[in-house]
Design brief:
Layout (H helix, E strand, L loop, with lengths): L1 H36 L17 E4 L5 E5 L21 H11 L11 H12 L10 H8 L11 H17 L2 H11 L1 E4 L4 E3 L1 H9 L8 H10 L9 H17 L5 H9 L7 E5 L5 E6 L16 H15 L1 H5 L5 E4 L3 H13 L7 E8 L6 E5 L20 E2 L5 H10 L7 E4 L4 E2 L8 E2 L11 E4 H6 L3 H11 L1 H10 L18 E2 L1 H13 L2 E3 L4 E5 L5 E4 L7 E3 L3 H16 L20 E6 L5 E7 L4 E8 L11 H17 L13 E6 L5 E6 L4 E4 L10 E4 L10 E6 L4 E2 L9 E6 L4 H4 L6
Parallel strand pairs: 1-7
Antiparallel strand pairs: 1-2, 3-4, 5-6, 7-17, 8-9, 8-22, 10-15, 11-14, 12-13, 16-19, 17-18, 20-21, 21-22, 23-24, 25-26, 27-28, 27-29
Length: about 750
């Protein structure tokens, strides 16, 4: 009797411990579930990933260059062609279900047997093994792609919860269709083999609808381990097992299985011989790369296409791009320009083997991007997805100087205005040592004389540049940079004048375009025409207003352009010119190099009458290059090669010269001819009629050219400073000293 009581006590203790353990495990699971639930992806994203959600992208000559499919959370860009179940052999769907999830049509996302087995393993601290349903695998390959194949409690909990939600929302056919479109089928060379369309093409050269029973079972047998491709003999027993299981599950008849076992199949790259009973007599892998695909979907200019997708989503929203049956997109991509940029990237001689580059060509009259490469192209190496041309924020160095010098022209100076070229220090309120900013010229070389702006820019001297910025005032310079959509750090100070500004080659090209087009800034765009499947026009560049605004008057812009042409042409190799290597026979060229401190970044910005181009180079991870690296040696030749190939076949033309431009000679280099705003009694002001982009001219009164003070707009009706309510015809420009500002201020001003 006593032994019975002891046994009962032991039973009670066992169940108490079991219950306590279950409660503790449940509590812990609840805590983890709440915490991980905050980062749970939205399962409804799968709803936008439909068959018709492919967006076709065309170049400007209507050549198909890419097909876009949604990039799901955590997943990299994989080119795939989506197919629906009607386009897939029923043998393939049956083989996949039998091979991967025999109870697929019976469960609700979680297989009770596999779930129980894996839960026990997780509680014991072991890795999970197998048991995944098709729904689990779909979630793992899409919504949880960022967790890769991690066998962790977090990944499994998220996978289970999402599977239940997906099963509750989608039909079994929708889940199976999505699964077959995302599953990984092996290495395809330049691209992974993802989805049944790619797998059918890669292994058998067929469309999915044409797969035979044996071919379907072969592909299904690769799903758990695509490396099985390399041992065809070992595949046969696996295939025979799946034939038998398909018979057991009622997918095929015994006779269909018998015929399939006798079927002669030849996966790409293999030469296989069979006897009359279907047994392998010889199997040789004669070409390991035969299954490799150049791409499941052809895609040109990947970095350009990346920006096309970004602009599409920004303009129209993710749901419109991918949830409405897909779009037809015509872009600004010029294949001649793209080929030119790619060739220049391949041929580019860079300072270091680990250096890379970014390059872009832009139409200055529309802002349309013609071609783009975001990396150095090297034979046999896949391009990194990171796009230095559009994403890489790098210091621009001296390539910013032409904007400052052109601001000087706008404020009334000429190219022969002088600034002192010698050491100096400038008051600094932004953390400079001792409160003084002390810039230096390259190699600490100075002429110790007053130097014309033209010469100072030709030689890219820092001290005259900083003195010019100090004289014009940083607020005016920063305002101009903002008009050109170039970002300014809060604490940059006068260092901005010599390049302490970070931006991308794409934005720098857009900032240089106004020099060519008469002073208009156009926001860069990659699109020209976008329509929905029903034919609705969402965007038409010839119809819809371009995002643009005036930055310079036509005369000021042209003098800035003349500065750039001087940089290229005034000094040759013997004279130590910076940019002479960018010259193109028969074409006018302007441009400017740029080099940052410690030679971290080197640039060349160049313009022609047909296109603006930007080239940057540096280490991808950042950091200094050798001190003897000189941007003029490396960057102008790269720019020249891409521009020459783009201009090939085009009739040479000159830059447009607006009214009001005159020319003079200065003593610099024996008589350098420079452009200036000849009509000193006129000043360009914005046109008040938005339908007429031409500027209006207003007479100037008392406008001395080379005196101290600031040029301001005066309302001729009141004699006070003009404001936003002053009509254009009532504006006059006058130079006044700082102390006179109070005399002209409106009475309401403090």
């Amino acid at each position: 009797m006593e032994s019975v009581k002891v046994f009962i006590r032991l039973i009670r203790v066992f169940f108490a411990l079991a219950l306590g353990g279950a409660i503790a495990a449940g509590s812990a699971l609840a805590v983890f579930t709440i915490r991980w639930g905050r980062t749970m992806p939205d399962y409804r994203l799968l709803d936008s990933w439909k068959l018709g959600s492919t967006t076709k992208v065309y170049a400007r000559d209507h050549t198909l260059v890419a097909t876009l499919t949604p990039k799901l959370p955590g997943g990299g860009r994989v080119n795939r062609t989506l197919v629906n179940l009607e386009q897939i052999s029923p043998y393939m769907t049956a083989a996949a279900v039998t091979s991967e999830d025999r109870r697929f049509f019976e469960h609700y996302g979680l297989d009770p047997y596999g779930f129980a087995r894996n839960f026990l393993r997780l509680v014991q601290g072991d890795d999970v093994q197998g048991g995944s349903t098709l729904t689990n695998q779909l979630i793992k390959n899409t919504l949880l792609g960022d967790l890769k194949q991690a066998r962790t409690l977090e990944r499994k909990i998220k996978e289970w919860f999402l599977s239940l939600q997906v099963e509750r929302t989608f039909t079994k056919d929708e889940i199976l269709q999505n699964y077959l479109n995302v599953i990984y089928w092996g290495d395809g060379g330049k691209t992974d083999i993802v989805g049944i369309h790619g797998a059918a093409k890669a292994y058998f050269g067929k469309d999915p609808r044409d797969l035979s029973l044996a071919e379907s079972v072969y592909l299904a047998s690769l799903i758990p381990n695509p490396a099985r491709y390399f041992d065809y003999k070992a595949m046969r027993p696996l295939m025979e097992d799946r034939f038998n299981r398909m018979v057991e599950d009622g997918w095929i008849t015994i006779e269909e299985a018998r015929k399939a076992k006798l079927e002669v199949i030849q996966p790409k790259g293999w030469q296989v011989s069979y006897d009359a009973k279907g047994n392998i007599t010889k199997a040789s892998l004669v070409n390991r790369d035969a299954k490799n695909l150049p791409a499941v979907v052809t895609e040109r200019a990947p970095h350009f296409i990346q920006q096309v997708e970004k602009e599409l989503i920004e303009r129209f929203g993710y749901d419109t791009v991918y949830g409405s049956g897909g779009l037809t997109v015509y872009t600004s991509l010029d294949l001649q320009a793209q080929n030119a940029v790619e060739k220049a990237s391949r041929d580019a001689r860079l300072p270091l083997r680990e250096a890379t580059l970014g390059a872009v060509l832009l139409d200055p009259f529309t802002g349309q991007v013609l071609g783009m490469v975001g990396q150095k192209i090297r034979p046999g190496q896949n391009l990194l997805e990171w796009n230095n041309a559009a994403q890489g924020q790098r210091q621009v160095g001296s390539s910013i100087k032409p904007i400052l010098y052109t601001l000087g022209i706008e404020k009334g100076f000429n190219q022969d205005h002088t600034e002192y070229d010698g050491p100096g220090q400038f008051k600094c309120s932004n953390g400079c040592a001792g409160g003084w900013y002390k810039p230096n010229n390259f190699a600490y070389s100075y002429t110790y004389r007053n130097m014309p702006l033209r010469e100072a820019l030709d030689k890219s001297l820092n001290l005259p540049t900083v003195r010019l910025a100090d004289e014009l005032g940083l607020p005016a310079f920063f305002d101009k940079l903002k008009q050109l959509e170039l970002p300014i750090a809060d604490d940059v100070g006068l260092a901005a004048a010599i390049g302490a500004i970070e931006t991308t080659p794409l934005k720098m090209a857009a900032a240089y375009a106004p020099f060519v087009n008469g002073g208009i800034y156009y926001k860069p765009t990659f699109l020209t025409h976008v329509t929905t499947p029903s034919g609705q026009v969402l965007y038409d560049s010839s119809r819809d207003k371009t995002d643009s605004h005036r930055v310079w008057s036509p005369q000021t812009a042209f003098v800035g352009l003349d500065f750039l042409q001087g940089v290229v042409n005034d000094l040759g190799e013997v004279e130590g010119g910076l940019s002479w290597r960018s010259r193109i026979a028969g074409w006018p060229v302007g441009g400017k190099t740029g080099t940052t401190n410690s030679v971290k970044d080197i640039w060349f910005m160049g313009v022609t009458p047909k296109a603006v181009g930007a080239v940057w180079s540096g280490k991808q991870e950042g950091g200094a290059m050798p001190n003897n690296v000189y941007s003029g040696d490396y960057m102008p030749p790269i720019w020249r090669e891409m521009m020459v190939d783009y201009l090939k076949g085009k009739q040479p033309t000159n830059f447009d010269v607006p009214d009001g431009i005159g020319y003079r000679y200065m003593g610099y280099r024996g008589g350098t001819r420079y452009a200036y705003v000849a009509r000193q009694n006129v000043m360009t002001v914005p046109q008040t009629d938005p339908e007429d982009p031409l500027p209006r001219y207003t007479p100037l009164e008392d406008y001395p050219r080379e005196t101290d003070g600031e040029v301001v707009a005066i309302d001729s009706r009141t004699g006070l400073l003009a404001d936003e309510f002053t009509p254009a015809e009532s504006i006059v420009m006058r130079r006044i000293t700082s102390s006179q500002k109070f005399d002209y201020a409106p009475e309401s001003s403090p």
